[in-house]
Amino acid sequence: MILKAGDPGRVALPVAMLAALGACVAVAADKQPREYLDEDTAATVTVVAEPLVFALPRPELAANVRDYVTLAAAAVDRNGKVSYVLIAYFWSTVDPRLRTDALPSPEPLVLQADDRRIALALRGHSAHEAGIGVPVHAPPGAAVTPNVYGTDLGTLRFIAEARSLTMTADSDGVALSYELWEDHRMALRTFVHHMHGDQ
Q1: How many CA atoms does the CB half-sphere of 62 hold within 13 Å?
Q2: Are 26 and 39 found together in one domain?
Q3: If you average pLDDT over residues 121-131, what whole number do you get?
Q4: Range of the domain at 7
Q5: Is 180 exposed, middle or buried (0-12, 13-18, 19+ CB in 10 A)?
Q6: Cβ–Cβ contacts within 10 Å for residue 170, how many?
């Protein structure tokens, strides 16, 4: 299509492009990590804006119910020494009265990011011990135990840039595969860039 002088399309196209660019900037701004001084631990904590959520359908128990794993990245700065963690919560929309099995064990927990298998190293079940006094993206409903895994910025960058992500957990010796349900890799990429000093 050829646009001529005075053609409304000559104005409409740049305006549409600017509007799209503005929307992208607004989305990126929404994904900015939250950084605060934790009054409980005296550490500076940076938390990803939105966590990754993985899901496993449980149709054998009830229709439209799933087991979930919420996975959130955080950085803890204690007097200039920064450590990185992934906090995972195992939770479910299955009625507990229907269950004959327990939720999976927090260890081993493996992320399959493209062709790389990332075994997460469990550090404990208390975010406070990692320097975080406020719950990080805890799932809705009843209180769920946080599982804290050590990681590093390079691994978080790889996860954020991976084209495919799945998670494997263990339930009484049976490997359960969780698919990515809520894809917030953009928020994780923004977190990584922020911690790397790119923004």
Answers
A1: 13
A2: no
A3: 93
A4: 1-30
A5: middle
A6: 15
Q: Residue 53 corresponds to which tokens in the numbers above?
A: 């959520």
Task: Examine the domain organization and report whether 73 and 127 are in the same domain.
Answer: yes
Specify the number of domains making up the chain: 2
Beta-carbon neighbour count of residue 176 at 10 Å?
15
Helix axes 8-30, 185-196, angle to 10 degrees: 70
Tens digit of each residue's pLDDT (9 = 90 or more) over 144-182:
999 999 999 999 999 999 999 999 999 888 899 999 999
Kindly report, residue by residue over 75-92, the tens digit of the pLDDT: 999 999 999 999 999 999
Question: Which structure tokens are listed for 174?
Answer: 């049976």
> Measuring CA to CA, how many Å separate 76 from each of 45, 90, 155, 197?
5, 22, 16, 15
C-alpha–C-alpha distance, residues 160 and 15, integer Å: 32
Q: What is the rounded CA–CA span in Å between residue 102 and residue 113? A: 26
Tokens 């409980």, located at residue: 40
